[in-house]
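## Example record

The block below lists the input lines for one assembly entry, exactly as stored, with component labels intact.
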Amino acid sequence: MTAPAVTAAAEGTAQGEEVPAGPTFGARALQALLDGIQFGVIIAICAVGLSLIFGTIHLINFAHGELVTIGATFAFFLNVSPSGPGWHLVPATLAAVVFGALLGAAIDRGLWRPLRARGTGLINMFIVTIGLSLFLRHIVLVLYGTRPGSYAQYDIQEAIDLGPAGITPRDLTVTLLSVATLLGVALLLQKTRIGTAIRAVSADRDLAEASGIDVKRVVLVVWMLGGALAALGGVFFGLVEIVSWDMGFKLLLLMFAGVILGGLGSAYGAMVGSLVIGIVAQMSTLWFPVDLQYAWALLALIIVLLVRPQGILGRRERVG
Amino acid sequence: MDFQVILSDAIRAGIGPIAAIFALSAMGLNLHFGYTGLLNFGQVGFMLVGGYGLAITVATWGGSMWLGVLVGLASAVVLALLLGLPTLRLRADYLAITTIAAGETLRLFYRSSWAEPTTGGVFGLQRFANDFYDLNPVPRGTYGFWMVKFSARDLWVMIVAWALVIVVGLLLALLIRSPWGRVIRSIRDDETAVRSLGKNVYAYKMTSLVLGGVIGAVAGMLQAIHVQSVNPDSFDPGVTFFLYTLLVLGGAGRILGPVVGSVLFWFMLTFLDSALREAIDSGVISSDVISTSEIGAVRFALVGLALILLVAFRPQGILGSRKEMLLSGR
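Predicted structure tokens for the full assembly:
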């Protein structure tokens, strides 16, 4: 993203040094908005699964960030790693998405279903997700290493000039693909049978079960969908920023912020909330240091909870 | 494989200053989570304001250590009030996310270039604990038994830290058995019932949050003193995760739970670390499988696995009673 360069120019002018005149405030604001939208839709892709999982089984999944990291690093392995097959990024991404879905299914089948069968309480499950997060993150660290990396394709590009602001073809493509994915998820939820079932389970699990919906299957599908979307979001984030072993954990709090901002459990809320978080993070760099941009996003979360705990699109009854 | 080295490393970690500091911080968390049912995932934030309160007062403003301790304690109270205000009316899972976000926000603010003149930014602050070490009554030299040796400085930190663990433990035991403690535990078990008895649940939760947070801040100060520096990155969210692990291991809702948990946690963590290192050095495990640089990651992965297995098979931990630890959470 171009935010650091923009701020560096701003500081230059603020100190009154003899530098070439930086872009005007309007241009910088437009650029930050553009970056914010791009960042926001990527967070949204990662966060929708988090919100759907919460909606169906009321579990806050602390390990969701690791699904993002695993997606990104799996694609990295297929695409760049010397021991990998060296695929082009597009098939590598598709493979990572499938892998993410399988991993989601494996976690539901292998971990949550037995725990639910044992009657483990929600708070205990919540602590289990922390264990899972620690476990997966450090497995990735062993397999991937500490060095951040970039994908082999689309690494360095010239920005397309959009009047006062600019965007690289790569970033534009990622943004458009993200928006298309989000629209696809919305269509899936509204128009398909499984989407209707997911919404029914989210609204009232017992009623859904009583009316003949196979809740176990719905939960499995939600985990697969969440895993696949998280993996896709991870590749996108790795593409526009960087691939690293703790990228998902860094994104996790922003995902939470987006999900809660929009209303915990609502998929559309997660999309809206994440967009807001992305824009807040990028726009804050117009006035504040870049190293604080995530802090403002998290602060926005706390303030929203103070004013409207159910979130933008949330329902009152979800707040205890 | 030198088992003496492995064992002495592990014992040293199990009774050392870090174990005492984590036990202390986890005691505060136990008051929140084990007794009140609050899912505070930002305990590290209290440690941070405590440690930085002391360090900033001494290193940046040139105040005395005792003033620094007061500033650290006051910051913890302020943080608890600020944190409690929006979150204590929310359900447990909301509280968890808000507190972890608050802890991380604090860390980002303290490490930012904007705060660097006061907090030292990413470099942190050093040399603020001399007053503490000047009080050290232990003569120079190393002390210990068998292969477990501590320097006079470490011993001094250990004496103070374990003494604080005992004092805080006694205070908490008295508090928990008091009428206040009964209300707190009832809130954990059934908040609505307590409210219907006319108790101000919000105020009780707030007191618990403040008290546990202050204990966390004391632990943070001790940590800062022990390593003679504060650095924002030593207060990352992972610290709270470790605190939960050792709390669940020892048994939440038991006074001695965090103490037993911390000793065992650091004993096992170091045992694993040392054993893996010895095994690789002596060629028992080929360095192709795990290299020395990966040991840290492997042991953290095992911590995660241990947390999963503990909650699945023994959620009450070593000391807890299953009946009391239903962990409904609010």
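Chain B is about 70% helix and 5% strand. Chain B touches chain A through 50 residues (CB under 8 Å).
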